[in-house]
Amino acid sequence: MSPSCVDTLYASADAPRGDFVFDERVARVFADMLARSVPGLAELVRLIGLLGARLAQPGTRVYDLGCSLGASSASILARLPPTLDDEDAAIRIYAVDQAPAMLDGLRLRLDEAIRRGRLQPICADLADVVIADASLVVLNLTLQFLAPEQRLPLLRRIRAGLRPGGALILAEKVALSEDDGLLTRVHADFKAAQGYSQLEIARKRAALEQVLIPDSRRTHRDRLREAGFTRIEPFFQCLGFVGWIAR
């Protein structure tokens, strides 16, 4: 699998039909797809790395849930101490995704970190993952793909699995209920400016319609509080994409 294929998935006559699926075809172009679809993505991932390195505690676990190709994991790893001189103080990242094709791509990109024991890929449904001894959990553009009724139970399990002082980094595309349509139109303009045709934009929007179900900012904040988080701070927004630190 090439790590840098250009996304023409929805441009061709054999474009996928039906709901969006994280299969091998998507995994092959996913890095390019995200970069051209999510405004501010590079800065968001960079900030996740900076925050993660600050929040991760020695001798604990970091979970990257819905890790896809491992961009958040790689950003955090790049800012952690490079050696494991003290085994008891080592910080290990558990990168979890239920799509085998995504984890195949992650293994290609982060093979050295895996071989050194700094990163462990796990193929699993997030509903089955046990969160334990964690100082940091990352949900980067992941919660929106879970069924709405599964979101609060996952956040509660994350909160229960955090050590004292632990944190959740949550980034999501939000429902812009207060928007008059301007930000939505500008997001489409952004994708067109990255080279996507109107046909590609429309096809992908239709594929994601029943798969990516965003919540409002208020819903996110209220749900985080209901899950047990008491300090919720926004650290990122670009058009309809927002990031929070919850502790």
Description:
It is a single chain. This protein is of the alpha/beta class and 247 residues long. Helices cover 40% and strands 19% of the residues. It contains 9 helices and 7 strands; from the N terminus they run H-H-E-H-E-H-H-E-E-H-E-H-H-H-E-E. A 7-stranded mixed sheet has the order 3-2-1-4-5-7-6, sandwiched between helices. Helix 1 packs across helix 4. The longest helix is centred in the first third of the chain and has 15 residues. The model has no long low-confidence stretch (mean pLDDT 94).
What's the arrangement of secondary structure elements?
Blueprint: H1 24-37, H2 41-55, E1 61-65, H3 71-77, E2 92-97, H4 100-109, H5 111-115, E3 119-123, E4 134-140, H6 148-161, E5 162-173, H7 182-193, H8 198-208, H9 217-226, E6 232-238, E7 241-246
Short recap of the structure:
40% of the residues lie in helices and 19% in strands. It is built from nine helices and seven strands, in the order ααβαβααββαβαααββ.
Number of strands: 7
Specify the helix fraction band.
25-40%
Q: If helices are DSSP runs of H or I spanning 4 or more residues, what is the number of helices?
A: 9
Shape: globular
In the predicted model, the low-confidence regions spanning at least 5 consecutive residues are none
Q: Report the sheet-strand fraction.
A: 15-25%
The main pleated sheet reads as:
7 strands, mixed
Order of helices and strands: HHEHEHHEEHEHHHEE
Determine the mean pLDDT. Answer: 94
Spatial order of the strands forming the largest sheet: 3-2-1-4-5-7-6
Structural class: alpha/beta
From the N-terminal CA to the C-terminal CA, the straight-line distance is 38 Å
Radius of gyration (CA) equals: 18 Å
